[in-house]
């Protein structure tokens, strides 16, 4: 891709351990949400694509699926615990624009209402997949529910994109146009966020119309 982050170079340069650490970090380490670009989607897809040629992980796609799922789930668990333990002190800061007590309350209400769907959908949206487990911890989302849907989301995202890359990597058209494919994956990852914003605006407009 030749941009801020080259997924293929990362996979080939850092190996399986680097792949694991990157997936773990993007899933729940707060500082990663502040980075300009860390495309976990294209990283997973590229790993699967290279595995199709036997150029990564010895072609063992099952191993990549297992590693990606475990790393993603573990990252979210760390993010949740960080939000639960450190979050309350952050939200007591009097002059913070984001870390306000009312935002913690909103987070709690948000995950009480739609936590399961939010956890799964956020997996496929850059930045949100890093912030969501932290906010879930701040909002004191039920830990058992969080763990269950965290594992489900990690499996769908981690294994799903690796498998997609593995099978599409065997298609000549995809393999010969990998840069375009990866850009398309990154753009598609923002679709759930755009759809949610459109729905939110429609709800707000509808509520304003009722009040009038």
Summed up, what is this model?
The protein is built from nine helices and no strands.
Sum up the structure in keywords.
mainly alpha, 0% strand, 9 helices, 212 residues, single chain
Low-confidence stretches: none
- Sketch the topology as an H/E string, one letter per element: HHHHHHHHH
The helicity comes to over 70%
The domain count comes to 1
Anisotropy-based shape = globular
Biggest sheet overview: none
How many strand segments? 0
Share of β-strand residues: under 5%
CA distance, first residue to last residue: 50 Å
Average pLDDT: 77
- Overall SS class: mainly alpha
Specify the number of helices.
9
Radius of gyration: 18 Å
What this model shows, in words?
With 212 residues, this protein is mostly helical. It has one domain (7-201). Helices cover 76% and strands 0% of the residues. The chain contains nine helices and no strands. The protein has helices spanning 7-28, 40-52, 61-90, 101-122, 128-138, 143-168, 172-176, 178-188, 191-211. Helix 4 (101-122) runs parallel beside helix 6. It is globular.
Give the arrangement of secondary structure elements.
Elements: H1 7-28, H2 40-52, H3 61-90, H4 101-122, H5 128-138, H6 143-168, H7 172-176, H8 178-188, H9 191-211
Helix pairs in contact: 1-2, 1-3, 1-5, 2-6, 2-8, 3-5, 3-6, 4-5, 4-6
């Amino acid at each position: 891709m030749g941009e801020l982050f080259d997924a293929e170079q990362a996979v080939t340069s850092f190996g399986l351990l680097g792949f694991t650490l990157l997936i773990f970090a993007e899933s729940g380490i707060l500082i990663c949400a502040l980075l300009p670009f860390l495309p976990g989607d294209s990283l997973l897809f590229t790993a699967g694509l290279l595995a199709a040629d036997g150029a990564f992980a010895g072609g063992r796609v099952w191993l990549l699926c297992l590693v990606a799922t475990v790393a993603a789930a573990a990252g979210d668990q760390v993010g949740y615990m960080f939000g639960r333990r450190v979050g309350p002190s952050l939200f007591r800061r009097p002059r913070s624009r984001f870390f306000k007590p009312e935002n913690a309350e909103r987070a709690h209400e948000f995950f009480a209402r739609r936590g399961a769907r939010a956890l799964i959908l956020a997996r496929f949206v850059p930045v949100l997949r890093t912030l969501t487990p932290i906010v879930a911890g701040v909002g004191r989302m039920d830990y058992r529910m969080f763990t269950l849907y965290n594992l489900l989301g990690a499996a769908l995202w981690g294994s799903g994109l690796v498998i997609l890359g593995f099978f599409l990597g065997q298609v000549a058209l995809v393999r010969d146009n990998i840069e375009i494919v990866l850009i398309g994956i990154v753009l598609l990852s923002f679709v759930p966020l755009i759809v949610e914003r459109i729905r939110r605006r429609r709800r707000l407009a509808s509520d304003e119309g009722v009040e009038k």
